[in-house]
Amino acid sequence: MLNVRIFRNNRGFTFSNMAALIHYSATFGITFLLSLYLQYIKDLGPQKAGLILLSQPIVMAIFSPYAGKLSDRVEPRVVATTGMCITFVGLLIFSFLNETTSILSIVINSILVGFGYALFSSPNMNSIMSSVEKKFYGIASAMVGTMRLIGQMTSMAISMVVFALIIGRVGITPEYHSVFLSAVKIAFSIFTGLSFIGIFASYYRGNIRKDSNLNP
Predict the structure, then answer these.
(1) Mean pLDDT on 21-45
(2) Average pLDDT over residues 42-71
(3) Does residue 21 fall inside a structural domain?
(4) Does any domain span residue 214?
(5) CATH assignment at residue 164
(6) Residues near 146 by Cβ (< 8 Å), separated by ≥ 6?
(7) Does residue 212 sit within a domain?
């Protein structure tokens, strides 16, 4: 049974989970949108598109451990908020995608988003686990998983609703590429707005190591 006191009396835990929810909502749909863009606009096959999209998770895998270690030395709020800011910049750039955007630009920006994701994810997890007593570790870990799942579902729901409203039931053929691009831009703009809100949620969690009222 969930102990609501963890949220009610624990700003660090509450805002860290809120930041996680927003971050996953703003980033999970990136791969979906870019995969469609690369295949329909850039006319790439699934394999080539997949290889290009690997740039983001590779960067995440490389830098996440270092970000976690950094958050042991520096206040997690600072590292995680910096990561959210970088992610915001990457999403903002993606919101200007067009037919002339180069593959290299997409790869570089994907690397940027992946780096921001790495800086946010591990330190945010550190912040969540550090804000509760050991007896609540299981609940805290489960809550992170819940926020991740809800965020991922929200991200895909946003993409699907935008596509349904802008594109409708027509196929993504060359004559509808401009409409498709409009939908992609709108979706990325929404993700950018979410990420901007997430910056404040991440920042206002407080200093985990200095706040004496974090643990219930």
Answers:
(1) 94
(2) 93
(3) yes
(4) no
(5) 1.20.1250.20
(6) none
(7) no
The residue written with tokens 């999209």 in the block is: 53
Tens digit of pLDDT for each residue in 196-214? Answer: 999 999 998 877 654 434 4
How many other CB atoms sit within 10 Å of the CB of residue 51?
13
Q: How many domains does the chain have?
A: 1
Residue-wise pLDDT for 101-110, tens only, equals 999 999 999 9
| Under 8 Å between Cβ of 38 and 49 | yes
Question: Could you tell me the two tokens for 114?
Answer: 């992946």
Question: In the predicted model, what is the mean pLDDT of residues 113-136?
Answer: 90
Mean pLDDT of 85-93: 97
- Rounded CA-CA distance 48/123 in Å is 32
Domain membership flag for residue 216: no
206 φψ region: left (φ > 0), alpha (ψ -120 to 50), beta (else): left
The two three-digit tokens of residue 207, written as one number: 């200093």
Q: Residue 137: what pLDDT?
A: 84
